[in-house]
Amino acid sequence: MTSKVTYWLGKNISVRYLLIFFAPFLLFFLPLLTGKGLFWGLPILQFIPWRVLAYDLLGQGILPLWNPYNGLGAPLFANYQSALIYPPGLILYLFYLLGDTPGLVWGFTLLVPVHLGWAGLGMAKLSKEIGLSIRGQVISGLSFGLCAFFVARAGFFSMIWAGVWLPWLILAAEKTIQARNRKTAIWAIARLAFIAAFQLLAGHAQLTWYSFLLAGIWVIYRSWHLSDFKNMGVVVGKFGTGLIIAVLVSMIQLAPTYEYLLESQRSSSVEYANAMTYSFWPWQLLTFIFPGIFGNPGLGDYWGYGAFWEDEVYIGLIPILLALTTLKQLWKKGQPPENLSTYRPILFLWVLALVGGLFALGKNTPLFPWLYHYVPTFDMFQAPTRWMFWVVFSLSLLAGIGADLWKKPFGSGLWWLKLSRVGILGVVIGAIAALLIMPNIQPSFIRTFIYTGIFGFLTINIAIHAPEMTYKSRVKRWEWIGMSVILVDLVAANAFSNIFVEAKVFQRYSDDHRTAEVQQNRIYIPAEIERSLKFDRFFRFSDFSPREDWSNIHDTYLPNLNLFDQVAMINNFDPLTPRRYAVWMAHLDSLTEEQRGQRLKEMSVGFVASTPDMDIPEIRIDPLDPYSRLRWSACGELIRRGQDESQIKAELGSRLENQPRCILVEAANACGQDGPDAMPREIRLIHESVNDLEIVVSDGAEGWLIVADTWYPGWQARIDGNRVPIYPADYLFRGICVPEGNHTILFEYKPKSFFIGMLVSFGAVLLWLGMVVFGKWQN
Fold first, then answer.
1. CATH number of the domain that 641 lies in?
2. Are residues 344 and 290 in the same domain?
3. Domain boundary among 623, 642, 665
4. C-alpha angle 251/219/117, rounded to 5°?
5. Measured over all CA atoms, what is the biggest interatomic distance in the chain, rounded to whole angstroms?
6. pLDDT (tens digit, 9 = 90+) per residue, 356-402?
7. Is the dihedral angle over the CA atoms 545, 548, 554, 556 positive or is it negative?
8. Residues 547, 513 within the same domain
9. Whether residues 226 and 374 fall in one domain
10. Looking at the domain assignment, is residue 303 inside a domain?
11. Judging by DSSP bridges, how do beta strands 703-707 and 733-738 pair with one another?
12. Cα 610–592–662 angle (5° rounding)?
């Protein structure tokens, strides 16, 4: 095993590379060993339910294209963050087959340290590529793979899956720069396309876009740095070709997602207030040196601004100090040191870190708001703080450079280090004293100062005792001591960043009587109750510890928990929702209770959730007398497609009191009749699955069949085998014109975007395989 690893990674470095890869497992080993999994927030509310539904459908031989259980129906496969075909995530299906939902949870949790270790290896390999010694490679790898930016977001699976590919993407871009002939260029482009496709399929557009942008800047900078202006266009062309091939390979996912984006509530941009959510809190810069100074929800005492995980940036005390030491090289005259013979991108990396940090501040400076309004792509995403992705990447590389530049101190430098050691001991003693004489001080202050003091003391001792480079055995021992301290520091700092629970907590609800009670009826949870259940009762940002048994969450029917039992509900907690649905729900929230009840009946809602007391584990569901989901209208009032939505909402609001028999239909041609002889027709549901439903309509006059499900492109209708258009009815629902007589009607969800994307991906994969074979044969 070791010999194979050595062959692939390079001689004499296999053990240290294995250390980088397996280091994140120290944070996850005990939970995985005891059958626990990540739970808090998105794992239980999004990622696990999405997969359970998708895998249940696959088990029935059904493509998981549509989710009929949330928000009157919404795309499932096109939901980008579900990442159903991300290649490393395909193994999750095996975990699900072997262990049902708990097995799936365990598999998701296992993939987190695997990806973090992969991130560390990628950074180490990139460090090697730019000329760093094994010392710098290990320090860069550990600081990036175990940085708090990733570890604190462990439950954001798509973020982890996408973000860890950044160093591998940069490494592949570097190979395209170095490719000087057709043989090596084809192989380099194929490798770049492979990595970029994995990142595109990982399910997080924001970090993927930031990665592609950084990689493009890297390519331009490197061409400039090498003074290769003549070939800059060729290099950029090769890089662009690799990304284009990656996009084509990923079209099976990207095409449906793009269609969904255009039809979603974020079709034009993220609203300004939402886009500025989670701007980096400037005081969190202190956590580069003092991890957890504002508390930690894993310890139950977070008191900082916003969400803990959004502002965490710790990369280790030794790495951040080493990165800071590289600043003096910017003013140092002469040639780069020999151990950085390839090049020394110190200034470039500091500029990246500065730019990323300024962008991350979001609304805290005028810069990001200006970019939001005037520069494309800045209005696409929320949480500017995620630009710290660039910062931790740059600082991790700089830490490796700083490690290579570090020399045995002497003279005034040695004197200042010894003086600092005494000062740090004084800080630790002062913090302990404050704990005794100042009981009202924030506990996180005391804890963090003691923590930083201890590791600061160790850091200075390691720096002071740096051996001369001629004593190789001493240097090796000194390096291992330093790496061990970094490892312990990062593991200890991140130890309470996540909460794990028994994977069986995710097991689907077992009360068959209650499930059957609501199986055929949609549930609606008012927005204020949904918000309170999430953030007051279960998922408090200040404290991860439970206020009650975590399994009680199944009694709430929070979206997407209903997917475990395949119970339909009006609420939808997906990152993208159909735009018509989002507009409708905003309209619903603005109504009086009586008006809202009428609207809920039109949405075929059978139960409305209520909570007399938020401390009572089980919520109450009050029955309604809803309209049928399949209903008939003798006439339709035509409105222009694309008419101003405020006018449509006003018209819908006025109809709440008048209750007209005609529906609003966004169609071009009239259908039906309006008179006393227009009798309702009998409608019978013959068959239904997630992607289709078959209906029989009895003899009667021409009119409109309305299905109280979300109108969305990709749905097709056939009457007696003949294709007919589906029109938006009453803005949100699906409506078709049915001629007089007996008819069999079939609705099917067959999105062209999926099938066209699949064909494009198949062709692109063949192209990519051809490039691999050709490049391998040439080499």
1. 2.60.40
2. yes
3. 623
4. 70
5. 104
6. 999 999 999 999 999 999 888 888 898 999 999 999 999 999 999 99
7. negative
8. yes
9. yes
10. yes
11. antiparallel
12. 110
Residues 109 and 20 occupy one common structural domain = yes
Distance of CA 103 to the CA centre of its chain: 21
Closest CA to 779 of 219, 191, 243: 191
Distance CA 269, CA 254 (A): 18
Number of domains present in the structure of the chain:
4
Domain-located, residue 599 = yes
- By C-alpha distance, which of 732, 723, 682, 731 is closest to 703? 682
Domain extent for 416: 409-465
Contact indicator for 71, 581 with CB cutoff of 8 Å: yes
Residues 525 and 593 in one domain: yes
Dihedral, CA of residue 680, residue 681, residue 682 and residue 686, to nearest 10:
-130
DSSP assignments along 130-188, one per residue: TT--HHHHHHHHHHHHT-HHHHTTTT-HHHHHHHTTHHHHHHHHHHHHH--SHHHHHHH
Shared-domain flag, residues 438 and 551: no
> Exposed/middle/buried for 581, CB within 10 Å: 0-12, 13-18, 19+?
buried
Instruction: Measure the CA–CA gap between 447 and 438, rounded to whole angstroms.
Output: 14
Residue where one domain finishes, among candidates 623, 650, 674: 623
The structure tokens listed for 404 are: 């290579």
Q: Which residue has the higher pLDDT, 44 or 469?
A: 44
For residue 25, is it left (φ>0), alpha (ψ between -120 and 50) or beta?
alpha
Q: What tens digit of pLDDT does each residue of 519-553 get?
A: 567 999 998 888 888 888 899 999 998 888 888 88
The reply to whether 293 and 175 lie within a common domain is yes
Q: Which of 206, 253, 280 is nearest to 87 (CA)?
A: 253
Query: Residue 5: which pLDDT band, with cuts at 50, 70 and 90?
Result: very low
Q: Per-residue confidence at 556, pLDDT binned at 50, 70, 90?
A: confident
Yes or no: say if 275 and 269 are a contact pair by the CB < 8 Å rule.
Answer: yes
Total residues found in the chain within this entry: 779
Rounded CA-CA distance 54/76 in Å is 8
| 379: Cβ contacts below 8 Å, ≥ 6 apart | 269, 270, 272, 275, 372, 373
Q: Specify the 3-state DSSP secondary structure of 738.
A: strand
* Per-residue pLDDT at 1 exceeds 50: no
Pairing of strands 630-633, 703-707: antiparallel
Residue 224: count of CB within 10 angstroms of its CB? 12
Tokens 């969450």, residue located: 553
Q: How many CB atoms lie within 10 A of CB 120?
A: 31
**Phi, then psi, of 503 in degrees rounded to 5:** -60, -20
d(CA 385, CA 278): 6
In a domain, 637, yes or no: yes
Q: With beta carbons less than 8 A apart as the criterion, state whether 116 and 151 touch.
A: yes
Non-local CB neighbours of 611 within 8 Å, separated by 6+ positions: 529, 532, 533, 619, 620
CA distance 38 to 33: 13
Same domain, yes or no: 288 and 228: yes
Residue 475 forms part of a structural domain = no
Tokens encoding 717: 């209708």
C-alpha pair distances (Å), 86 with each of 50, 92, 239, 257, 292 = 14, 10, 22, 14, 33
pLDDT reported for residue 669: 77
